[in-house]
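Subject: Sanity check before I submit

Could someone independently write out the structure tokens for this chain? I want to compare against mine line by line before I put it in a report. The sequence has 380 residues.
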Amino acid sequence: MEKDTQPFDKEIIPLRSKIDQIDSQILSLLAQRQTQVEKVVNLKKRCHIPVYHPAREEDLISKLRIQAGIAKLDPDFMEDLYRVILRQSRVKQTDQMEHKGVRPGARILIIGGAGQMGRFFSTLFLKSGYEVRILTEPDWGNAKTLCKDIDLVLISVPIEKTEAIIEQIAPFLSPKTILADLTSVKAKPLEKMLAFHSGPVTGIHPLFGPTSNSLDKQIIVITPGRDSAGCQWLVEQLTLWGAVIVQASAEEHDEIMGIVQALRHFATFCFGQFLYENLDRLERTLEFSSPIYRLELGMVGRLFAQDGSMYSEIIFATKERRRLLKGYIASMNSHLEMLENNDKQLFIKKFNHLAQWFGPFSEQALRESTFLINKLIERF
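---
Independent answer below. Compare away.
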């Protein structure tokens, strides 16, 4: 027996029409919001104020979650929605800020400017009204000319070449020129720059890849060397582009990066090696993948989609890093006896001890990873 859909068809039309009207109102309000954002951008440009204001954003999200609850809407949904809106707003602001220079017209020399990271920063400086010169290996015969009246020299070359490049370029620099490097190891390059250049010196480490399309909320570590006041305009420019600046000594930077970069990449490499030795078909495991396994495996695959020589330089950069990684292997081996003895109680004891050490971060990690897993489910 066929259902009579006429009542439904009749009643649904005005409901859908009302929804369409509301959608149009939402779009109109978003357009109005964007107009106000552009006014904020112009004000920030005039006053040299950074794009990202974390306290403002988190305060807004907190208020919206409360308002969502009062309106009987899902606070998580409201937060997700507004984080997308805020992200789009920041990207829009950052794009416009890329055309604002703290010292427009200043002359920048990027050594290694033909590489990915060098090109990334070259584009940013050019957009903001700076004169950018590039020095690559075939150009060393013109190094003196390229350094004439230069305000900033930015070294963007592989780790193993950095110290030699510093020695080569330093004789051509004015005492007023800022000398900076983008290397992921800071202590030795900073020491070399201080020894060979008498002017302002600073270390810079962008904690992101050159495939990024903006500096929005990207972390850049600054390791002061000499004359921080003379380097301040450079720090202000990075901040204006949307970067989050973290100040650290070169020694602290290298110690933390041993964990954040070298250990993480090496552990991922080891996991990939183990999979290679023990799996016949990697693709088959994906058919059984929970979202968290897919996410973890995605991070492993991400490593091997990139340049092995770059990661070798990061992992093997210093004897301190190599000593750290040997300690990691020794720590792994220390669990062999527990496995051989099938000692579940020892595992639980160690697990609980580690859980206590991680403390409140475990709950934060659970929330953040759950968010990523849910996004992965939505995507795939």
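---
OP: Matches mine. For the report I'm noting this point. The chain has a mean pLDDT of 90.
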